[in-house]
Write a structure and sequence with these properties.
By secondary structure, this protein is mainly alpha-helical. The protein is built from seven helices and no strands. The chain is elongated.
Length: 171
C-alpha cells in the first residue's frame, strides 16, 4: 500500500510540476499559495492514514519548492541566494523557467527582471543538474517485497510424486 501511494504521489508531483513549467497562466503568487494549501492537504491525508513513512510526501518535494519559489520575493541578491538554497530538488533549468514564466496577477507584483534571473544562474552554475526540463511522469519506482523467512525446514518438506519433479533430489 505504501509503495502504491508513493508512486501515485510521484505522478501527481510530475504532472503538476510539468503543467507549471509549461503554462504561463499558472505561474503566479496565488497559484503558489493554492499549490501549497493543496499539498498540505495531501500531507495531512497521509498522516491521517498513517502513510507518512511511505516516502510519498518526499516525492512532492519538487512541487513544494516550486510553490515556495512562486511565493518568494524575487528582487535582490539576497533573494537569489535564498531561492538557490531553498530549491534543491529543482534543477537550474526548472528554476529559471518558472522565473521566466512568472506572471504578476495584480498591481502589487512585478515581473522577474532579467538581471535577477542571471543572478540566479550565476549562483547555480556549479550545480551538475540533468539537462531535462520536465519530469518523467511515467517513471516507476521498483516494487519491493519484504523477505519473510519460513519456519519450515527443507528437510520436512514432502514432494508428492504426482508433481513429476523427479529431478529434485534430497541431499
Amino acid at each position: 500500500v505504501q509503495q502504491v501511494f508513493k508512486q501515485l504521489f510521484y505522478m501527481i508531483n510530475a504532472v503538476a510540476l510539468n503543467n507549471l513549467l509549461l503554462r504561463k497562466d499558472v505561474c503566479s503568487w496565488s497559484t503558489g499559495m493554492q499549490l501549497r494549501f493543496n499539498i498540505s492537504q495531501l500531507e495531512e491525508w497521509l498522516r491521517g492514514k498513517n502513510l507518512q513513512q511511505s516516502g510519498a510526501a518526499q516525492t512532492l518535494e519538487p512541487l513544494i519548492q516550486a510553490a515556495q519559489l512562486l511565493q518568494l520575493k524575487k528582487k535582490t541578491s539576497e533573494d537569489a541566494e535564498a531561492i538557490c538554497s531553498l530549491c534543491t530538488s529543482l534543477t537550474t533549468q526548472q528554476i529559471v523557467k518558472i522565473l521566466n514564466l512568472y506572471t504578476p496577477v495584480n498591481e502589487f507584483e512585478e515581473r522577474v527582471t532579467v538581471a535577477f534571473i542571471r543572478d540566479i544562474q550565476t549562483h547555480l552554475q556549479e550545480r551538475n543538474d540533468p539537462p531535462q526540463l520536465l519530469l518523467d511522469f511515467k517513471h516507476m519506482f521498483p516494487v519491493l517485497f519484504p523477505f519473510n523467512p519460513s519456519s519450515i525446514t527443507m528437510d520436512s518438506i514432502h514432494i508428492p510424486a504426482s508433481l513429476n519433479l523427479e529431478f529434485l533430489n534430497k541431499v
